Amino acid sequence: SVYLNEEGGWRSCAVYARESLWPGVTLPGPLIVEEMSSTSFIGATDMLCVDGFGNLDITLGESV
Predict the structure, then answer these.
(1) What is the rounded CA–CA span in Å between residue 23 and residue 18?
(2) What is the rounded distance in angstroms from the CA atom of residue 58 to the CA atom of residue 28?
(3) What angle do CA 46, 50, 56 make, to 5 degrees?
(4) Could you report the per-residue pLDDT of 13-54, keeping only the tens digit for each?
(5) Which letter does DSSP use for residue 13 in this model?
(6) Could you tell me which of 19, 63, 14 has the C-alpha nearest to residue 41?
(7) Please, how many CA atoms are within 13 Å of residue 63, restricted to the half-sphere of its CB?
């Protein structure tokens, strides 16, 4: 669970291993992406897309 201030409380949140996210994957937040050197949080209104090079492209305010 993560605490989302804008929603005023705790919410369940998926956690993904970075290496499991292949190009073309699109996921709505909230979610967490873990890798050896960093952790990325994608908020409840954000969208994660993995581009053709494997980069995490996070668009703010796009999730419903």
Answers:
(1) 11
(2) 10
(3) 65
(4) 999 999 999 999 999 999 999 999 999 999 989 999 999 999
(5) -
(6) 14
(7) 17
